[in-house]
Amino acid sequence: MFTKQKILQTKYLLQQQLGHTSAGHQTWLAKDLNTNEKVTIKLLAFSSQMHSKELKLFQREAQILQSLKHPRIPKYRDYFTLNRQLDNGVIWFALVQDYIPGFSLQELLEQHQLFDEEKIRTIAKEILEILIYLHELNPPVLHRDLKPSNLILGEDEQIYLIDFGAVQIQTTVSGTTFTVVGTAGYAPLEQFWGRAVPASDLYALGITLIHLLTGISPANLPYQDSRVQFRHLVNLKPDLINWLEIITELSVEKRFPNAKIALEALSSDQDIDTSTSKESPNQKSLNLKPEKSLIELNQEQRRLNIKIPAGGLARFNEIFNAGCRGLIFYFVLFSLSLLISIFIPYIGLCLISFVFIYIVLLCGTKTEISFESNSFQIKRKFLIKKYGKQSCPNSIIVDIFIQRTGSIFQVNIRTTNHTYNLGGALSQDEAIWLVQEIKQWLVDS
């Protein structure tokens, strides 16, 4: 449908296609015939087969861009809908912005351009200034897709932030957003849980800078304990390395809380201490146990003991992702088993036994984990009976990560040959806290 020299809305002359996606997006370089200025037109094809979320995100992008006024964000110009008759009944929505001549940082990476420490500091400061503007709006605006392809190094040698297709106004409910979007590798864990905050954009910035420094995409960077490992890949001053480690922390509480504080830390001549013995940049205790948590954690000399309570009803409710309907299902199944046992005793009793044992074990199994200097041990406990004892040397631990099922979270230990699930039905805060505690003990031991 769209070709070079085609005119849209009697004023926009298409000159060159800049990009397209399988999701129905096209981006064109065009000329505004009224002003003779170059513009960028972003197009979205919308049909009955497309999910409405795509259109909502596109409309939100246009709405928010219209309210933004920053010299490093391409200016909003126009928004319109194209006639159905132009493309066999398909509706096209169009967003027009200023065109920024230059190259994206992704294009420069693909051209094998090197970014030295001085250039990285300059890029970081310019992006942080843009994020300060966005995050200090009322309500804050979160970009949620900061990455090299969305950063343009203009002909004026300034950095511009583009593509607000994943943009979100932070809701009044602290720490939550409505739509889960982002690019894997650059987006932090909490963003994929629908809990993006200003520090989520900072994480994406940190990963982007590491990509620029190393030339290695996030998917190919080495990770240990869910944390990107880059020290051995760069030659930087210690303060910048420590700054990058803080901004890319897995736990959002451990990162800089906002862009202004991150910029102040980057501009400071003082070295940043990342040790956990000091208060985090968020001015919050990193190892503060969540309120009402029933997890028992005790540190002895050269030993860490953890007791995780049973998952309770929350565990099997989540199997069906249906709240109390999970309990109703089991009640109906148990009742049917009783009915069957009247006519077919053997099968009925087997079903009853299976349901009963499964529910009891799921609800009543506790986990005890003990770490020593060289190994860890896991024991399952039902009432007073211990079973399922497992042990493994610490030297083959690869990662400690969080697994989510519905609204419950669990901590897993991945080794070179096995993954150990620590059970329970934890909250997000409990899981993050527990991961931090285990990791820190292993580092210190």
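The above is record 1. Record 2 follows with the same two-line structure.
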Amino acid sequence: MEPRDHGRIARSLEPLHALGYFSPDVEEALVGAGLRKGRTAYFASRAAAMGRVGAGVVTATFYNFHPGLVAKCVPAAWEQATPEEALAARLRGIDKSYRRLLGDDVLASPEVAEAAALARRASEGCTAPGRPLYAAHADLPWPEEPHLVLFHALTLLREHRGDGHLAALLAAGLSGLEALVTHCATGKGFVPAVAQLTRGWSDEEWAAATAGLVERGLLTPEGGLTDAGRDLRRHVEAETDRMAAAPWVHLGDEGALRLAELGQPLVARALANGAFPDGVFASA
């Protein structure tokens, strides 16, 4: 397979990981562990693998959140729940969410067990240097149940890819806010209003970033991508795919295609059962 095919498979499976950030079951479990609802619970659940890190580390590794928003939540989160408690709550919430969205019969199926084994094998091809969020999650113990193995493996693949994506954005000269604005402009990510609100950027900051991107020739005055902007985003995604190819090469073409074949019905079922709230992502 070409690297772009690796990227396509990775993105097609990502909802099975990303639903954890939108699941009421996960948030309920995190709040039950003592974490404040909302951004604090989110930051803690994803950053907990790195231990009691401060706001600077979370800002650096999460990249497109306003530093002030992060600082309101971290390190205060660790006074509400320890990283270990946050990780355990996250997994409990994922278990409940998968059972609600996919059903116990599906989770007990040989197809889910096979998908979990393939995803775990792919994750063995990931490497840690320069990839802090991946490395932190790779140090965690593997869960036992196949559907939780699948979630953990997909998390490793997602964070490995994400760490590389940040390197590609830095090399392209895009700050976290600029990366967010240009990604929204592709029509394939967050709706701009949702991105701005959830990432903590003010109207003035968003407008200033947009104006700077217009001046650089990457956005039109109306906020759409120019040809140069589209080329830059394509380059970033191509570089991300290139840096994320190792686990898929390790798994091999046959295994990667089989994992995609097994994963797509799970993704479709989760989406059909409301894995993500309406109005969050662009429909393009």
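The chain has one domain: 3-170+238-272.
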